[in-house]
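Q: what does this look like with nicotinamide-adenine-dinucleotide bound?
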Amino acid sequence: MLHPQKRIMVTGGAGFLGSHLCERLLGEGHDVLCVDNFFTGSKMNIEHLMDHPHFECMRHDVTFPLYVEVDEIYNLACPASPVHYQFDPVQTTKTSVHGAINMLGLAKRVKAKIFQASTSEVYGDPLVHPQPEDYWGHVNPTGIRSCYDEGKRCAETLFFDYHRQHDVKIKVGRIFNTYGPRMHPNDGRVVSNFVVQALRGTPITLYGDGSQTRSFCYVDDLIEGFVRLMATGDDVTGPINLGNTGEFTIRELAEQVIALTGSKSELIMEPLPSDDPTQRRPDITRAKEVLDWEPKVKLAEGLKPTIEYFDRLIHDMGDRIAV
Ligand code: NAD
Ligand code: UDP
């Protein structure tokens, strides 16, 4: 073992990113406690870890207090896709805000370092492009995305106040769109939707004319960024943007997915959801300087294992995938 084993808690550990993080931390020899209420996460994502002697899973909702003894906390619990976070918007805000209060309180009591999975959504529909961390954002406080965007913004406020007021060691990472195996097939996010549609040969649903842009980061690159940020000294709090700077229109993404799957799916246009950001690309200067980190996996490369994953899943799940 390269370093002493730590007791690390991952909230949202049964979700897409959380399950990859648990796997990575176990691989480094740590003792991992996965805490999840299984709202969007699934036991399937972590079933390969269940027999690991250093892995433990607890069903718990972070909006309620939790008493455990750990050295580090990665706070990922929160539905991330618009379909899921808009399903019960009050619970979404509670998960971000009450969840942050509970996890920060725990970190304060046990003197643990705590990482917050924040989001590019704190920039809203940005008027500055690409987005650096010192941009304060352009967020609608009352729209259908606000439960997520404002919940995450308030969580950041709480993290910085616990740091200033109680000396809690915080690490705030602002995650930009990330994709890869174990994304939920029915969560409506663009990569999972397009890949499933292409594999099935059903129409690919462009919302609006598909000219809006996103920057897509492959999951392995992102997890490397998480671990590097957690390993920084006490002087580093973030916020730090974590994302890939390759920017694509949604139509370009659809074309790449069609080319890689050899699909015959046609592109169809559907209404653009309200408050859908028109452009998004991270400025990762700070991550490069502070973490010596930048993504390595290009979109076309990362789409391949993602397509393979969904191909297997469609084979196993068939009609239970709703897209
Ligand atoms: P996900 O939906 O797959 O994972 C979220 C996990 O949190 C799920 O396992 C879910 O069951 C769990 N959860 C939700 N509410 C909970 C609660 N109240 N108590 C306990 N567990 C709860 O989403 P993901 O893509 O893995 O996202 C993980 C984190 O990263 C989220 O906080 C999300 O906001 C953030 N993030 C993700 C992206 C992305 O592109 N994937 C981008 C920005 C931010
Ligand atoms: N999108 C789309 N078709 C889909 C799903 C999403 O055109 O089937 C668009 C969506 O309107 C948005 C972009 O793809 O402009 C990214 O959507 P996603 O929900 O993945 O992430 P977010 O909007 O939170 O960045």
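The domain at 7-320 is CATH 3.40.50.720 (Rossmann fold). The chain has a mean pLDDT of 96.
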